[in-house]
Structure formats: structure tokens, C-alpha cells
Write a structure and sequence with these properties.
The complex is a heterodimer of chains A (154) and B (173). Chain A is mostly helical and 154 residues long. In chain A, 81% of the residues lie in helices and 0% in strands. The N terminus of chain B is likely disordered. The chains are: A mainly alpha (154), B alpha/beta (173).
């Protein structure tokens, strides 16, 4: 009975990941992250993704504050924030977030404020979609581990 | 039938394990050799001791530092991190730092990778320095970074497969 539960959960995880790859939400770099997870770092993917969420939300908040300021003109700062977002997104395999950040950065290089505002909306949308999908993935993984009777120190 | 992600992981793992086997394992013990300063392998007839690769990871991004730390750990190395080029230079100021490898990000606040690399070479730091660039960096920027004193340049995102051949060369040298 337990075995069937684990198998079904594993199948759900595989289906979700396959879907995320097909949608282009994730790319091969996410597989590289999973490869780095082992018995010495059993929660590596969870840890690094959560660091990514914390850091990305700080950057997105800062971007929004900058752009909401009517006197705003510091496109260089926008570019620096976006460079960081592009780098960290590509490092975890968040392909769509990375792509829309690159488009946003192009608008900032042209000092195009309406383009930047639109870019920010798109980035926020893609980011939140990714975050929701990752939470779903982690929940499934947690259920799978519980079903398999595995305990990791958290 | 489309390969699911876990099949992909398994196949990639096999390839990476093969690379690691090449890098870190010797099937036949060899005669004793003289040791050199870094990255050496001391060998006797019956026992092999491998020195752990000691790496400095220089990047202002927390996610990337964590990723690179784990990559180095996964290949049996140890690492220290610095948040920018200025920290990296400060680590070397007392002359006692001894890294086999420095992974140097290009764009960082306070002191960028290019400036840090130049400074470290002026300080006679002989570690292998691998510059880590982004796809946004053009050929001219990469060239300038190399000329600052890098041994190699790699584009983000880094992975075990990208870094292992370079480390292999370092260990052979």
C-alpha cells in the first residue's frame, strides 16, 4: 500500500517536472541542481531555491520602488538589479524568468520607463508562477519522503 | 516516447560520475613522487593521498555562491567565499592565503572581477583564476577580463561538467 503511494507521488513529481520543462519554465540547469543533491546535502535544491526566492523578492521590491518614484531616472541601478536576477535565475534553471528579465533589461538600457513598468509586471508574473510551481513540487516531494519513511534533519 | 526528467538526470549522472572517476581515482598505485606546492598527489606503493582542492568563490549573488560551493564540494574540494572583489583581495593581503583555484565573477559592487584579478596578479597570487561571465558580456569585455590575468573564462551558469575539465588540467599541472 505504502509502495503504491510512493510510486504515485513519484509519477506526479515526474509529470509536474516534465510539464515545467515543456513550458520552458525550467531548463537543464535545474537538473544540474538536482544532481548536486545527495546524502551529504539532502535538501540542497530546497535550500538554494529558497535563497533564490528571498533574494529575488528583495530585488523585485527594489525595482518596483525605483519605478514607482515619479522622479525616477536611475536606469543603471535597474540594470544592476536585473543582471543579478538574470544570473541567479539562470543558475537555478528558471528559464522563463531569465528570458523576461533580459527583455526588461533591454527596456532599461533604452531608458524606456513605460517599457520598464511593463517589463516588471511580466517578470513578477513569471516569478510568481515559478514560485507556485516550486511550492507544489516541494510539497509533492515532502509527501513522497513521508510515504517512503525518509527523515532528513531540517 | 519522450524522456522524462528523471531519466535525463540518471543519464547525466552517469556521465558526470565517469568524469569524476577519471579525475580522482587511480586504479594502479604508482611509485613515490616528489610533491609540489598545490594540487599534488603524493603516491606510495600501497597508499594514495589526494590533496583537497581549495577554492575561493567570489560572487555578489548568494544563490550563485551556494551553487558554486556545492559544485566544489561535490567534486571533493573545499571552498571559502567572498561577496566581492575587495573581499577577495583582502583575504590575500596577509600573504597566507593559498587557493588552488579562484572562481571570479565579473560584475560586483565595491571592486569588480577585472580589477580584483589585476590586483591579485600584482600581489603575485599564482592561483588559477577562472572568470565567470554572463551571456550579456560581449567579446571585448571578455577579452579585457582575460587580459586582467585570468587563466580561463566560463559563462554562467556553471556546472560540474563545465568546470571538471579545467580542474583536471589544474591537477595534472
Amino acid at each position: 500500500m505504502l509502495g503504491l503511494g510512493v510510486d504515485r507521488l513519484q509519477a506526479d513529481i515526474n509529470r509536474l517536472l516534465t510539464s515545467l520543462f515543456h513550458q520552458g519554465v525550467l531548463d537543464e540547469q535545474f537538473l544540474q541542481l538536482q544532481q548536486l543533491q545527495d546524502e551529504t546535502s539532502p535538501t540542497f535544491v530546497y535550500d538554494v531555491i529558497n535563497i533564490y526566492f528571498d533574494e529575488s523578492e528583495k530585488l523585485l521590491r527594489s525595482l518596483r520602488l525605483l519605478l514607482m518614484d515619479r522622479e525616477f531616472s536611475d536606469y543603471k541601478k535597474i540594470g544592476l538589479h536585473l543582471n543579478q536576477l538574470v544570473g541567479s535565475s539562470s543558475s537555478i534553471g528558471a528559464r522563463r524568468v531569465r528570458t523576461v528579465c533580459v527583455a526588461f533589461r533591454s527596456a532599461s538600457e533604452l531608458n524606456n520607463r513605460p517599457g520598464c513598468l511593463r517589463g516588471l509586471e511580466v517578470v513578477e508574473h513569471e516569478y510568481h508562477y515559478l514560485k507556485n510551481m516550486m511550492h507544489e513540487l516541494f510539497q509533492l516531494e515532502q509527501q513522497r519522503l513521508l510515504a517512503a519513511g525518509v527523515r532528513y534533519p531540517m | 516516447m519522450q524522456e522524462d526528467s528523471y531519466t535525463l538526470i540518471t543519464n547525466t549522472k552517469k556521465h558526470t560520475h565517469a568524469l569524476e572517476h577519471l579525475l580522482f581515482e587511480e586504479k594502479k598505485p604508482k611509485m613515490a613522487t616528489t610533491s609540489t606546492s598545490t594540487g599534488d598527489i603524493k603516491k606510495t606503493k600501497s597508499v594514495e593521498v589526494k590533496k583537497k582542492l581549495n577554492v575561493l568563490i567570489v560572487d555578489d549573488d548568494t544563490v550563485i555562491r551556494k551553487l558554486h560551493e556545492n559544485i566544489i564540494k561535490s567534486i571533493g574540494g573545499i571552498s571559502q567565499t567572498a561577496k566581492n572583489g575587495e573581499e577577495a583581495v583582502n583575504i590575500h593581503r596577509d600573504g597566507n592565503a593559498s587557493f588552488d583555484l579562484i572562481l571570479m565573477d565579473k560584475e560586483m559592487p565595491e571592486r569588480d572581477g577585472l580589477s580584483a584579478t589585476k590586483k591579485l596578479r600584482e600581489m603575485k597570487v599564482t592561483s588559477m583564476i577562472i572568470g565567470v561571465t554572463t551571456l550579456a558580456d560581449n567579446e571585448e569585455e571578455r577579452k579585457a577580463f582575460m587580459e586582467a590575468g585570468l587563466n580561463h573564462c566560463l559563462a554562467k551558469p556553471l556546472s560540474k561538467a563545465k568546470i571538471l575539465p579545467l580542474i583536471n588540467n589544474l591537477m595534472d599541472a
